[in-house]
Amino acid sequence: MDSDYPLEQTPAVRRRNKVREAILAAAERMFASEGESGLSIRRLAEEIDYSPSAIYKYFGSKEELLEELKDSFFERLLDRVDGVSAANKDFHDRARACVTTYVATATARPHHYAAAFSSVPTPEELAVRRHLSWDDFIATPKGQAFKILVDLVEEGQALGVFDPALEPVKAAKSIWASSHGLALLMIHMPILPDVQPCPTQTDGDFVAYHADIVMRGLAVPAEPPHKNGTR
Amino acid sequence: MDSDYPLEQTPAVRRRNKVREAILAAAERMFASEGESGLSIRRLAEEIDYSPSAIYKYFGSKEELLEELKDSFFERLLDRVDGVSAANKDFHDRARACVTTYVATATARPHHYAAAFSSVPTPEELAVRRHLSWDDFIATPKGQAFKILVDLVEEGQALGVFDPALEPVKAAKSIWASSHGLALLMIHMPILPDVQPCPTQTDGDFVAYHADIVMRGLAVPAEPPHKNGTR
DNA sequence: CTATTTTAGTGAACACTGTTCACTTTTCGA
DNA sequence: TCGAAAAGTGAACAGTGTTCACTAAAATAG
């Protein structure tokens, strides 16, 4: 059971990991520049001087390999947002930074981000996921990222800048949707930010602009004395 | 030049169009249920009892065929939103309906909507699109859909419910991003709407909830007498 | 009505793709 | 050192989109 390598790994597995990393690195390169369709097992194998079948000793399928690329990207995304979320700036700045950092990280690797949200689940998968508990969800990277948003909303409510009537989970979902949408719109339709007749506005500035609008949507309602019929 | 069929088409082209429609109909079926990867030229040809090469007498490539499917879906999306936008309801209801209808139509055909925004443009394509004028843009279906939003914002500003300081084009972009994001989030991550610990809320209701938040983000700022440092 | 040209449609082939599997070679532990 | 386990390979299978020389049928011209 025990070996001569109590903490270090045995040279065999170190070599193996090295090959595995080489595969992932090459795959990362190809995927980042050419996307999912540009990443072929055969070209990948050629790139690292192995036979195509060798890849299958390290990854069960192309999909499994891709899953690993996406997951590592999502962890990176989470880290980034977590970083700015932890920085002790002014609340408004921090909230805005969460959105802008999210969008910036997403658009920096468009293929990764798009691929991370590319699969349309089948009805069967949907039935499985339907039985996921809240605790299981926030254990995943996506869940953790989501938790950051929930906490942000609650903090905003505690500070009195966000409407206390909002359910934090739903508000967080709204923020995520808005950020997600802007990131994908910039990735898939980069026409829009440029076609506008106000050329003074760059893409990056619009992200902050959008983030401010999103945050404004969660602010405390405008007129307290007025009779407010809706909701 | 002139034929016996001044308004009607000649039987030859009518027959041809019939085959073309049959191809599109079969493609539509396969694509709607199995997505882009499930739509193969060969299976499609088999379905309509033609040889694979016959397809290429009607469509230059698989991509061209897909493009037509996506375009027709986008026109449908535009029609739907245009419909509710033209209905003379209360402004708030109408604005909310624009978002909810958009999201509902998108999620009703998840593969179509996801595919319509799936291509990551290459740097070359990006350079080409960068020289599109505003007029050219709003001539396209996407541009027209966008125009609806711009008009909506301007109307809201005229009614005094939206912040007059907003640039309508940018505000419209913000609305689109938020709607787009919610639609794709519901398509790709249907976990979220269900994992929330408030089971009284159904998906459809959340769309309206989100729409309200989005609209609130464009409303006139809260405190006029207060000193407002930011922006 | 015939001759010619245009069009519709096909089958075989090309160059790919992911994946499997029997097989050899190398490596490692006892 | 020997046997077992692991690493790696080549060939093959079943797909894919696409092309192209070719036939059969229809439309057109004389």
Properties at a glance:
homodimer, 231 residues, mainly alpha, Arc Repressor Mutant, subunit A, Tetracycline Repressor, domain 2, 68% helix, 0% strand, DNA-binding, MT1864/Rv1816-like_C (chains A, B), transcription cis-regulatory region binding (chains A, B)
SSE topology:
Two copies of one chain form a homodimer.
Chain A: H1 11-38, H2 41-47, H3 52-55, H4 62-86, H5 91-108, H6 110-116, H7 123-129, H8 134-137, H9 141-158, H10 168-188, H11 191-195, H12 203-216
Chain A binds a DNA duplex (30 and 30 nucleotides) through helix 1 and helix 3.
Overview of this protein structure:
Chains A, B: InterPro entries: Homeodomain-like_sf, HTH-type_TetR-like_transc_reg, HTH_TetR, MT1864/Rv1816-like_C, Tet_transcr_reg_TetR-rel_C_sf. Chains A, B: Pfam families: TetR_C_33 (PF13305), TetR_N (PF00440). Chains A, B: This is TetR family transcriptional regulator. Chains A, B: Keywords: DNA-binding, Transcription, Transcription regulation. The structure is a homodimer. In chain A, about 30% of the residues are buried. With about 230 residues, chain A is mainly α. In chain A, helix 1 crosses helix 6 (about 110-115), helix 4 (about 60-85) runs antiparallel to helix 5 and helix 10 packs antiparallel against helix 12. The N and C termini of chain A lie far apart (about 65 Å). Mean pLDDT of chain A is about 85; it is low at about 1-5 and about 225-230. Chain A is elongated and about 70 Å long. Chain A has helices at about 10-40, 40-45, 50-55, 60-85, 90-110, 110-115, 125-130, 135, 140-160, 170-190, 190-195, 205-215. Chain A has two domains: about 1-60, Arc Repressor Mutant, subunit A (Orthogonal Bundle), CATH 1.10.10; about 65-215, Orthogonal Bundle (Tetracycline Repressor, domain 2). Chains A and B meet through helix 6, helix 10, helix 11 and helix 12 of A and helix 6, helix 10, helix 11 and helix 12 of B. The structure holds a DNA duplex (30 and 30 nucleotides).
